[in-house]
Amino acid sequence: MEHTNRPHVPPTLLPRKEGIRLKRSLLIKPMMNEYYPTVTHGDGIYLFDNTGKKYIDGCSGAVTASIGHTNPEIIAAMYEQANKVSFVYRSQFTSEPAEELANKLNSLLNAKEDYWSFFVNSGSEAVETAMKIAIQHWQEKGNYRKNKILSRWISYHGITIGALSLSGHVKRRERFVHILEDYPVVSPVYCYRCPFNQKYPDCQLSCANDLETAIERAGADQIAAFIAEPIVGAAGGAITPPDGYYQKIREICDRHHILFIADEVMTGLGRTGKMFGLDHWGVRADIMALGKGVSAGYTPIAAALASEKVMEPILNGSNSIMSGHTLSANPQSTATALAVINFIEKSKLVENVQENGEYLLQKLQALAANSQIIGDVRGKGLMIGIEFVSDVKTKQPFSSGVQITKKIVDQARDKGLLVYPASAGKEGAQGDAVIISPPFIITKQEIDDLVAVLKETIEAVQNELVG
Ligand code: PMP
User: Fold this and answer.
1) 321, CA 20 to 30 Å: which among 27, 53, 250, 449?
2) Which residues form a coiled coil (predicted)?
3) What is the pTM of this model?
4) Which of 97, 71, 74 is nearest to 84 (CA)?
5) Which of ligand 1's atoms lies nearest the C-alpha of 160?
6) Residue 124, ligand 1, Cβ within 6 A
7) Fold of the 39-70+349-466 domain
């Protein structure tokens, strides 16, 4: 059943049994005046609503449900753990799943030094924790001046005040800007709209060199760390740096004694066709934030990881980090995350992401070649961004009144396909890109189905806008 005639009231405003008064929905939603279908269940890459309508989850929700919905192995593991114990407080007990998960994440990194894990409940908290670990690292070494954390424009690191301070996302900052730190000072890495009007490789990575300029301006003695998303997600739509960028970033951070934090909340755990986003460039960060894919949405859990080098002065000093949440490292969430990671490994899903990601990318590039409104297709693995423009030659964005991303997202949903809205464009706040990021289990046939619906959607929007 298609939702061509959307109801004017949300479906949750259902008549009460007696049929007289309407029951108000008291759930605060992202946009209160919008229509949201009510989900009933999921199955693999599909979701179903209470009208029986079926959706292809073409973006794993918010680039999260990486192994698809209602996986029986994960359900069994969750049930098994719930039968043992779901919650213990971390200052009273440790637990086998929490210990095992920390060791598993370390082994996945396969680095020269060990990485320690601290578990939290959301990507934003993972970023907040990463910030605190960076600052504490320098304090334990007797340096109380290194408190700033540099970040880039066109970035998203989370919604809590610290993580929002780091986020170069105009729209999400603007309401709270007076209580935020001005951390985004570094140029974005955005080859399609190079902020320096240059071309790779002649540019010699001006965007990476801009970190050095920013460090010199602020003073390395004041800076604890630099944070970046390996591939920019929500703020830009899978904006992917050119080769050499992260090698240069690593080198600049080392030379100025600044820690490098990788925000792998979206890219981590296989999404880009490697276990971690930075693996594409053979670079290791000192601290990492993981989220979304850690439990593939089966339970809220995220993590901040810190290298032995970062942890050493902390372990020898205060002996732990000054952070934590009631639900940190609870057995239920950590057991779930372990089951998800084991499933990814056992089913060789990262290989599937690599292979089917290539297939998806080619299909979307072919779509772009015949489109008057697709300006750029980019990304790695199953994290592909599509940027829309009103003129592909001049790269002119649509005016904000057009709400091109919303048009695409809404019309795709009406046709039974979910895609994720991202903001890109010149000011990084125009919202003219979407991310296609289906679950890792997607087959080539299902990719064909996804692309067919997307093509139909984009053509319909194109006809409406440019005729
Ligand atoms: N960092 C990145 C790169 C993200 O994509 C997100 C979520 N979109 C966050 C941090 C914040 O994560 P959460 O929404 O779980 O707080």
Assistant:
1) 250
2) none
3) 0.95
4) 97
5) 16
6) yes
7) Aspartate Aminotransferase, domain 1 (3.90.1150)
Residue with CA nearest ligand 1 atom 13: 123
Closest C-alpha among 295, 350, 154 to residue 235: 154
Question: What does the pLDDT average to over 89-99?
Answer: 97
C-alpha to C-alpha distance for 342 and 101, rounded to whole angstroms:
10
Angle at 431 between CA 425 and CA 433, to 5 degrees: 75
pLDDT tens across 186-195, in order? 999 999 999 9
Q: Where are the domains of the chain?
A: 39-70+349-466, 73-346
Out of 240, 264, 265, give the residue to mutate to test ligand 1, the one with the largest number of ligand atoms within 8 Å of its CB: 265
Mutate to test the pocket of ligand 1, among 120, 124, 171, 271 (most ligand atoms within 8 A of CB): 124
Write out the two tokens for 135: 């600052």
Distance CA 261, CA 304 (A): 10
Q: Report yes or no for ipTM above 0.95.
A: yes
Q: Do 24 and 33 form a contact (C-beta atoms < 8 A)?
A: no
User: Residue 15: beta bridge partners?
Assistant: 22
| Range 73-346 classified under CATH 3.40.50.2300 | no
